[in-house]
């Protein structure tokens, strides 16, 4: 029997999933996952910061906020050609989706023509496109969709109840409004959150409830583990429990059976075994490459070697080229057979 697609989850139901014995929860999540996805495929994306730093928002986790001294070098919007050169390299390294992020509260109309050129250029390479630019008006969303943008990312970050402890410069409703504008334009929605920001279990349940009870589930749900950056208010928070992170992945998979659940920021703090457990719990999308906007990420070749160990293949996307991806995984398999590799991370 296929998992029911629901949009009416209660907090109590979601908390009950979190409270299941660990093995029972993972078995349930893997069972749901196999109903809708190939369990041995993972979608691969690359993320590039196209405009770095000087953001006016006060998100307490973010090194790009102008309110915090994190030593980040501020940069203006990248030239279109430089963005396309990076996208070409990402494709050569096996990425099937190219994501571009700008540290803005919202894009200005003067920036839109350059953004449109970037979208069209990446699409011409045969890759999917994704952007995260802050809040969008309905008109801006339509313009980006008409340019060919496949996905727009705008995370809810945390529960509505805990939200005010994280951000004060925009409201939870502002985020929901942007998601509505994106969906109404015809683009696919990418929306998730961050765990490990000092929230309680009920807030993780609340975040997933807000996502799962949207009129249409997000097509992609990134689950980020907080990356603590010196200079931000969250630099000294305690380590987040890794089992609780895996539980969050599993519950997201159960609540949103057809969504891609992305194992996102924080992977440098996860060893191979933890990442494998996340894939078993239903994660089937990653960012790879050396950086996620401004924070470290495992190198692409390391990811491909892990895929080889697990028997995972990068997901093939209908209508998009994937021959380079197949070559990258084949090379990683060959290399892993020749030389022992050790993942440079500690739990």
Structure description:
This protein starts with 10 loop residues before the first helix and ends in a 9-residue tail after the last helix. The protein is built from 11 helices and 12 strands. The C terminus is likely disordered. Strand 2, helix 4 and strand 3 form a beta-alpha-beta unit. The protein has 347 residues and is of the alpha/beta class. Strands 1, 2, 3, 4, 5, 6, 7, 8, 9 and 12 form a 10-stranded parallel beta sheet that branches. A two-stranded antiparallel sheet has the order 10-11. 39% of the residues lie in helices and 14% in strands. Helix 7 packs parallel to helix 8 and helix 8 packs parallel to helix 9. 47% of the residues are buried.
Calculate the mean pLDDT score and round it. Answer: 84
Measured between the Cα atoms of the first and last residue, the distance is 37 Å
| Amount of beta strand | 5-15%
Query: Oligomeric form of this entry?
Result: single chain
Shape: globular
Q: Can you give the helix content as a percent range?
A: 25-40%
Kindly provide the radius of gyration, computed on alpha-carbon positions and rounded to a whole number of angstroms: 19 Å
Q: Secondary-structure element order, as H and E?
A: HHEHEHEHEHEEHEHEHEEEHEH
Q: Note the main sheet.
A: 10 strands, parallel
Number of strands: 12
Number of helices: 11
Structural class, from helix and strand content?
A: alpha/beta
- Give the uncertain stretches in residue-range form: 290-297, 319-347
């Amino acid at each position: 029997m296929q998992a029911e697609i629901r949009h009416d989850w209660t907090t109590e139901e979601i908390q009950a999933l979190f409270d299941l014995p660990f093995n029972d929860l993972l078995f349930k999540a893997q069972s749901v996952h196999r109903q809708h996805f190939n369990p041995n495929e993972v979608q691969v994306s690359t993320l590039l910061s196209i405009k770095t730093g000087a953001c006016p928002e006060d998100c307490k986790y973010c090194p790009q906020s102008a309110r915090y001294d994190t030593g980040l070098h501020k940069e203006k919007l990248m030239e279109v050609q430089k963005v396309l050169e990076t996208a070409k390299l990402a494709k050569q390294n096996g990425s099937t989706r190219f994501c571009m992020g700008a540290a803005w509260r919202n894009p200005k109309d003067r920036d839109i023509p350059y953004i449109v050129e970037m979208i069209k250029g990446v699409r011409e390479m045969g890759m999917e496109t994704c952007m995260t630019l802050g809040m969008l008006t309905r008109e801006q969303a339509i313009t980006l969709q008409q340019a060919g943008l496949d996905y727009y990312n705008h995370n809810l970050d945390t529960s509505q109840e805990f939200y005010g402890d994280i951000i004060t410069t925009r409201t939870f409703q502002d985020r929901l409004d942007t998601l509505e504008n994106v969906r109404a334009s015809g683009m696919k929605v990418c929306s998730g959150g961050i765990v490990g920001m000092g929230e309680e279990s009920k807030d993780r349940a609340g975040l997933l409830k807000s996502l799962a009870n949207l009129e249409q589930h997000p097509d992609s749900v990134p689950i980020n583990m907080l990356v603590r950056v010196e200079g931000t208010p969250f630099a000294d928070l305690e380590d987040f429990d890794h089992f609780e992170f895996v539980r969050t992945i599993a519950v997201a998979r159960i609540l949103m059976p057809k969504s891609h659940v992305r194992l996102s920021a924080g992977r440098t703090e996860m060893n191979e075994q933890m990442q494998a457990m996340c894939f078993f719990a239903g994660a089937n999308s990653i960012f790879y490459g050396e950086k996620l906007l401004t924070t470290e990420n495992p190198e692409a070749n390391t990811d491909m070697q892990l895929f080889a160990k697990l028997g995972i293949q990068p997901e093939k996307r209908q209508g998009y080229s994937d021959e380079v991806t197949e070559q990258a995984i084949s090379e990683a398999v060959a290399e892993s057979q020749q030389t022992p590799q050790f993942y440079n991370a500690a739990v």
